[in-house]
Amino acid sequence: MKHFYSILVALSVLNSAFAADNSLYGRFPIRQLEKTPVAVAGSILNPDGSILLDFGRDAFAQIELTLDSKEDGFIEVHFGEKLKGDHIDRKPGGTIRYAVYKLEVHKGVDSYGIKFLPDGRNTRTTPVGSGAVPILMPEEIGEVYPFRYCELVGLKGEVVVPETRQLAVHYPFNDDASSFCCSDTVLNKVWDLCKYSIKATSFCGYYVDGDRERIPYEADALLNQLSHYGVDSEYAMARRSAAYLLENPTWPTEWQLAMVFMAWYDYLYTGDKALIEKYYDVLKAKTLLALRNDNGLISTRTGKITQQVRESIRYRGKSPIEDIIDWPRSGSFGIGKKEAGEADGYVLGNYNCAVNAMHCGSLRTMADIASALGKKNDAKFFKDAAARSKEAVNANFLCTDGVYRDGLDTDHRSLHANMFPLMFGLVPDSCQESVLEFVKSRGMACSVYGAQFLLDALFTAGEDDYAISLMASTSIRSWYNMIRCGSTITLEAWDKVFKGNLDWNHAWGAAPANLIPRWVIGVQPAAPGFGKALICPHLGGLTSAEALVPTPHGGISCRYENRPGESLMAEIAIPDKVKAQVMLPCPGEGCELTVNGKIVRKYQIRDGRAVLNLSQGSFRIYVSSQRSN
What we know:
28% of the residues lie in helices and 23% in strands. The chain has 15 helices and 25 strands. It has helices at residues 185-200, 218-231, 236-247, 253-270, 274-278, 280-286, 307-312, 353-372, 376-397, 415-423, 432-441, 450-460, 464-471, 479-485, 512-520; strands at 2-5, 9-10, 31-35, 39-41, 51-69, 73-80, 83-84, 87-88, 98-105, 108-114, 145-153, 157-159, 165-170, 179-182, 523-525, 532-535, 544-549, 556-563, 567-574, 579-585, 591-595, 598-599, 604-606, 609-614, 617-625. The strands form four sheets. Strands 1, 2, 3, 4, 5, 6, 9, 10, 11, 12 and 13 form an eleven-stranded mixed β-sheet that branches. A seven-stranded antiparallel β-sheet has the order 14-17-18-19-25-21-22. It has a five-stranded mixed β-sheet with strand order 15-16-20-24-23. The longest helix is centred in the middle third of the chain and has 22 residues, at 376-397. It is globular.
């Protein structure tokens, strides 16, 4: 018999919220995965008679305890994400989760379930300033709580371990759809952390911002979408999240722009036009061309956010739409740098470089969307608008020393003012070196969210070694630091010293889950629905790497043995219905190329890479320094 008891004391709880289903985008049932403890520390070790259960990984979960009690009575059951010594940390700080329950037990062997009460903050029905409300757990599942550890205090008896389970809740996830291993052991651990984070944070069936609010935000969803694509061939959750956010936007300027990218990635990875067709007019408005001024720049501070503009992007919140740059943008957080916050001291003004660079990128992407839908006139319009935006960014923000300033009314130069133009291809050839030099001088002077754009920019610019070194760093601003802190899900920030109220369960910190397959292994869609793939590895100094990258047609398998500057061996398996353009580094001025043991004498060289066009099948390719003419 299972007994359910409510919480006595808890530091978190829940309500109910609006989350409209849209049948066009489908939804699979949320699942529960039973996990038994991987370690048990019993009363022999702890003088207070406590028993600590470690389930190995943090999860949004429920609990089923099977206990063999010597007497009737009450015990305390503690739940938490963090340890302090041999016990669950009762005061973990921030919004790292901890709760304690009082449980009545009976003599003998019996099973007990604890019903988690809702947290008013992440289940309220009243909207926050942006108009957003939390996503509720499905009624058939019930409330969950994020915990790795369960500690029993006062039990006179034992825990029946094989029948004691953490019931981890998540969206359907195929663990075998992806894999990664390389010669850098830190990067391997970072991959494992980020891959699991995508699975563990899918508990709502939508992309949400962790447990503190459980609200979808565009920036979180964009990073979550790409990382989900990198670890599993599942696309419905991303589409549902995109549709939800197109109907329920939040307040930051850049996050309106992010929806254009999210919609494009949906089409690019799936080949399905449903989302871009249905929301085409909203996506056009999300480029924020309506905010453009005579100088060619957009601004939220020049009186152009009318009610008509708000309605066109479907924004119903009371908070003003304003530029965010990064988060926390400023304020008391941000120890470890000269400036507070995670925006590298960005000086906000009426016209901001980072925002306008992203705006330019959204215009280019909107031109691609229009072209995909056969809207030739619109495609030309947005392409021309992007060209004018690029001119305006460079004319207004690019300084004589070849570095971008934050805005028109400041000479301050930040990482963000430079990495966004670099990522979106706005930097003139003559300034590539100076911008890169500045970007590299700032290190990881951004949040876990900003890191996505920084690393995209670095890989795009060919800075493979430096980009990989940031992902494999062991500094406080690193993914390894999240592991060192004791978390098994990515944090909301690099460390609590940078964001005092951080979560330990935030998927917007999991960027390597997409950066590794897209850039290091080099697998990206070259045509909608992965009818054609681009395989262009950026291995830097890694001597070996292998991965399985998911696509709608099955996984693309890649294994590389790398001797930088000398040779590269690539074993590539391409699934049925997929063609691939393979671009491998060509050492020196020329190279010798063999495919499945046969020398290839005619092939194209592009950007220092040997280019091969392959169809489905398995290939062993060897590229080495040219030894003969």
